[in-house]
Amino acid sequence: MDRNYHIFSDGCLERHNDTVRLVTLDGEKKYLPIEKAEAVYLHGQIDYNTRLVSFLNKHGVALHIFGWNDYYAGSVMPKRGQTSGRTLVEQVRAYDDPGHRVDLARKFVAGSIHNMRSNVSYYNRRGHDFDSILTTLADTRDRLAETTDVAETMGVEATARRAYYSTFDAILPDGFVFDGRRYNPPDNETNSLISFANSLVYANVVSAIRATALDPAVSYLHEPGERRYSLALDIADLFKPLLADRVIFRLLNRNQLTTDDFETDLNSCLLTESGRQTFSKAFEESLEETVEHPRLDRNVSYQYLLRIEAYKLKKHLLTGEAYISFKRWW
Amino acid sequence: MSAPDPVELLLQTARDDASPEEFRVTGVMMQYYVVCKRELWFHSRHVEIDRGNAAVVRGTNVDETAYADKRKHVSIDGTIAIDVLDDGRVMEVKPSSALVEPAKLQLLYYLWYLKHVVGVEKSGVLAHPTERKREDVELGEEESERVENAIRGVYDVVTSDSPPSATEKPVCDSCAYHDFCWSC
Ligand code: SF4
């Protein structure tokens, strides 16, 4: 499987002959095996030039850039290998048809709720009492069928997510409070971690979408946005419980990340460089975890599940065959 | 107005005559028609899937290298590309006996095309380099009918709004669309 490379140091990323070389500020040189790369994540202050961008482009490797405060800053995407006017037309058609759009929006939310529920029931079996939350999540899922427009569907999603987040304070170890989701800037360790984790999921979905001819800007649950690839938001929501939240719980409950890995400013709290490093490493490991896929009849990595999701959506749009959103089955 | 006959459409398109619609069939479309009609539909819609899997490049290696010195590549109308042997016969090379039927139909289609579009009658030979076997192929009455029925069949597939549904078969394992069809 193609790998992600995360760069945390400051310095310069350049093309050197037929390789990509990182020269850090203290003069150290490292080489990136570009043939095996899916994407390069820049977390530090990195200079690069057009020569590097064309080289990455040639190898189909994306650059995802993470800033300081607003974690995900943007991507330099390779020219798409896949373009298909028809796919785009079908994508827009589905967006433009209110019935079709809300149907897809509902499916994204149904999948998200299922996956949130799966996390909650995991902890419910491990000494927590989340029965009422599980019921709430089941109820919201049932209410989905009655929504008639995307705004209403979004409302159901928000209710489910609130119920889901209400379990976090109980799951998290002492010293970590959550107290509801807050962004821009995150005001406590947990929120900061969720922001960082979610943006890693998001960037990986952006890469996965690029492997199809889907246009990342045409979405169904989220309103197509100018600044973000909103289709990546639709798909990322399905995977956050699995790829972001589970990793967060694991790292915190095993003390692999502690409050020392965060820096608190006036009104924000952010991961330190080493904290980001620890998290990214665990995140990458979780992307490489595999699960037996019942239909493909082989083990697939979590990262490949993202790709599959993009395929499924594309197939639905092109063939009219039903789209069934990702629901954790194991 | 009755629907135009796809065979007529194809001939008109190939001869560059005024035609109510363009309709081209390539050799590979003939192969897909036999192998999997769903794959044909995807191919015709330019649905490309990069599975990143070696199996996807099925067959091309043998094709490139076998008999390289004894044949000439000839491309006609940019639609069909044939290999002509020194003795004038049209050759089609297939890597394995599993793909004989599709290769045979493709070869028959080339012979048919040469006859009806270019105006030359040729014989064909189907070669299996790995098995050191060759089979002579002639375009008779029955074979012509088979080709024309396949052309109509291809037309039906590529003009329909949705593809035939997926059915699992041995070739699925080495198909570029495998994960696309089966990830559900
Ligand atoms: S995977 Fe099977 S059903 Fe799908 S296109 Fe390929 S051969 Fe046809």
From TrEMBL, chain A:
<dbReference type="InterPro" id="IPR002729">
    <property type="entry name" value="CRISPR-assoc_Cas1"/>
</dbReference>
<dbReference type="GO" id="GO:0016787">
    <property type="term" value="F:hydrolase activity"/>
</dbReference>
<feature type="binding site">
    <location>
        <position position="222"/>
    </location>
    <ligand>
        <name>Mn(2+)</name>
    </ligand>
</feature>
<dbReference type="GO" id="GO:0003677">
    <property type="term" value="F:DNA binding"/>
</dbReference>
<protein>
    <recommendedName>
        <fullName>CRISPR-associated endonuclease Cas1</fullName>
        <ecNumber>3.1.-.-</ecNumber>
    </recommendedName>
</protein>
<keyword id="KW-0460">Magnesium</keyword>
<dbReference type="Pfam" id="PF01867">
    <property type="entry name" value="Cas_Cas1"/>
</dbReference>
<comment type="similarity">
    <text>Belongs to the CRISPR-associated endonuclease Cas1 family.</text>
</comment>
<keyword id="KW-0238">DNA-binding</keyword>
<dbReference type="GO" id="GO:0043571">
    <property type="term" value="P:maintenance of CRISPR repeat elements"/>
</dbReference>
<dbReference type="InterPro" id="IPR042206">
    <property type="entry name" value="CRISPR-assoc_Cas1_C"/>
</dbReference>
<keyword id="KW-0051">Antiviral defense</keyword>
<keyword id="KW-0479">Metal-binding</keyword>
<keyword id="KW-0464">Manganese</keyword>
<keyword id="KW-0540">Nuclease</keyword>
<feature type="binding site">
    <location>
        <position position="237"/>
    </location>
    <ligand>
        <name>Mn(2+)</name>
    </ligand>
</feature>
<comment type="subunit">
    <text>Homodimer, forms a heterotetramer with a Cas2 homodimer.</text>
</comment>
<feature type="binding site">
    <location>
        <position position="157"/>
    </location>
    <ligand>
        <name>Mn(2+)</name>
    </ligand>
</feature>
<keyword id="KW-0378">Hydrolase</keyword>
<dbReference type="GO" id="GO:0046872">
    <property type="term" value="F:metal ion binding"/>
</dbReference>
<keyword id="KW-0255">Endonuclease</keyword>
<dbReference type="GO" id="GO:0004520">
    <property type="term" value="F:DNA endonuclease activity"/>
</dbReference>
From TrEMBL, chain B:
<dbReference type="InterPro" id="IPR011604">
    <property type="entry name" value="PDDEXK-like_dom_sf"/>
</dbReference>
<keyword id="KW-0408">Iron</keyword>
<dbReference type="Pfam" id="PF01930">
    <property type="entry name" value="Cas_Cas4"/>
</dbReference>
<keyword id="KW-0411">Iron-sulfur</keyword>
<feature type="domain" description="DUF83">
    <location>
        <begin position="26"/>
        <end position="183"/>
    </location>
</feature>
<keyword id="KW-0464">Manganese</keyword>
<keyword id="KW-0378">Hydrolase</keyword>
<protein>
    <recommendedName>
        <fullName>CRISPR-associated exonuclease Cas4</fullName>
        <ecNumber>3.1.12.1</ecNumber>
    </recommendedName>
</protein>
<dbReference type="GO" id="GO:0051536">
    <property type="term" value="F:iron-sulfur cluster binding"/>
</dbReference>
<dbReference type="InterPro" id="IPR022765">
    <property type="entry name" value="Dna2/Cas4_DUF83"/>
</dbReference>
<comment type="similarity">
    <text>Belongs to the CRISPR-associated exonuclease Cas4 family.</text>
</comment>
<keyword id="KW-0051">Antiviral defense</keyword>
<dbReference type="GO" id="GO:0004527">
    <property type="term" value="F:exonuclease activity"/>
</dbReference>
<dbReference type="GO" id="GO:0051607">
    <property type="term" value="P:defense response to virus"/>
</dbReference>
<dbReference type="InterPro" id="IPR013343">
    <property type="entry name" value="CRISPR-assoc_prot_Cas4"/>
</dbReference>
<comment type="function">
    <text>CRISPR (clustered regularly interspaced short palindromic repeat) is an adaptive immune system that provides protection against mobile genetic elements (viruses, transposable elements and conjugative plasmids). CRISPR clusters contain sequences complementary to antecedent mobile elements and target invading nucleic acids. CRISPR clusters are transcribed and processed into CRISPR RNA (crRNA).</text>
</comment>
<dbReference type="GO" id="GO:0046872">
    <property type="term" value="F:metal ion binding"/>
</dbReference>
<keyword id="KW-0540">Nuclease</keyword>
<keyword id="KW-0479">Metal-binding</keyword>
<keyword id="KW-0269">Exonuclease</keyword>
